[in-house]
UniProtKB/TrEMBL annotation:
Keyword Acyltransferase: yes
Source organism, top-level taxon: Bacteria
Alphabetized SUPFAM superfamilies for the sequence: Thiolase-like
Species annotation: Siccirubricoccus soli
One annotated GO molecular function: 3-oxoacyl-[acyl-carrier-protein] synthase activity
Entry-linked SMART domains: PKS_KS
Protein name: Beta-ketoacyl-ACP synthase
Nucleotide-binding as UniProt keyword: no
Amino acid sequence: MRDHLGRPIVAVTGIGLVTPLGFGVAESWAGLLAGRSGISRITRFPTEHLRTTIAGQVVLPEEAGREPLSSPERVERMAALAAEEAVAEAGIGARANFPGPLFLGMPPVEVEWPSRLALARQGNGGEAGSYPALIAAATGQQALFESCLFGGVGERLAERFGTRGAPISLTTACATGASSIQLGVEAIQRGEAEAALCIGAEGSVQPEALIRFSLLSALSARNEDPTKASRPFEKSRDGFVMSEGAAALVLESLESARARGATVLGLVLGAGEKADSFHRTRSNPDGGAIIGAMRAAIADAGLEPGQIDYVNAHGTGTPENDKMETLGMRAVFGEASPPISSNKSMIGHTLSAAGAIEAAFSLLTIRDQRLPPTINHEVPDPAIPLDVVPNVARDAKVTQVLSNSFGFGGQNVCLVLGAAP
């Protein structure tokens, strides 16, 4: 029950998912294997005069017939739904008594435009735009204040599930979800916890976030057919598609899981991280951080590159990212690269949730011995000589998967997932 470094082996005993393909593991995974796109025209807010008008949206049941929830509310709700599914599958933490800490990966939160404009309108009762008037308008807005506390979401989720110790909320850009899993793994490996609830959640399909990414020229503007917009590794790719969702994993030491008779869904064998601080959005052209994170994860798992059967790509569909990931693949695996595919072709880029969602999909790939496809792969890019599992899912023998998460600002985390013993 120990790994090659003498650390407790970390098992996964519960998985929960919320994606634009559906609520729950079964619906999301079935849609992914079918090559179904969850990208659609944005209906949550007006998109006139915007360069990008598509996204991967999750419409929550409580939003029917009312104004959409704010991003922090959506993050909390989707995180809770994913965690409920994962905890129930694990058969652990009954009566809100989860026997370990919470690690929550989520986006930065702030007061959104509608609330800011409402405060400004109220504040204009005095001298137009004056700080005293705005402060007076904001006084007593406790609910608004609490919704925008970064640690508040984690505190409420910790109370809901009865996790132990202070919850950890973190953001590492597009690597956030993978970072939450890495922290849970390391807590168990150090013997600080027998179990951990690890969540990645994202709810930022809202005007300000969309415009910010658009100004960075990061988003696809292929609005005519939303289902065809996300095109990782394809020659005509023009950017990623913003999306939202959540995933939760229940991690336990293998010894603890076996002792209580839990079903082990897979293992987290290793994690590697490396940052380069080269640019706010771009990777260093030498690929050092991406290559280093991949190699570190494989080494941490006690494996050689040739023992990786499949790579769940970061695969955003931006010209820059896909080129750099290809460079990393060739550096790490040489001419014998394993198959690699991107679920972002179907669900878009779920940002803070992506690393956790992709870890979940990696475990399901191992479970079903079936590689999800990269859809919309019409014209191969000659600069990307990889097997990207184009357009159609494929049966394959899969024992170990490398899951890549490469974030803005040079924050990179890779995970190695393995089959249950």
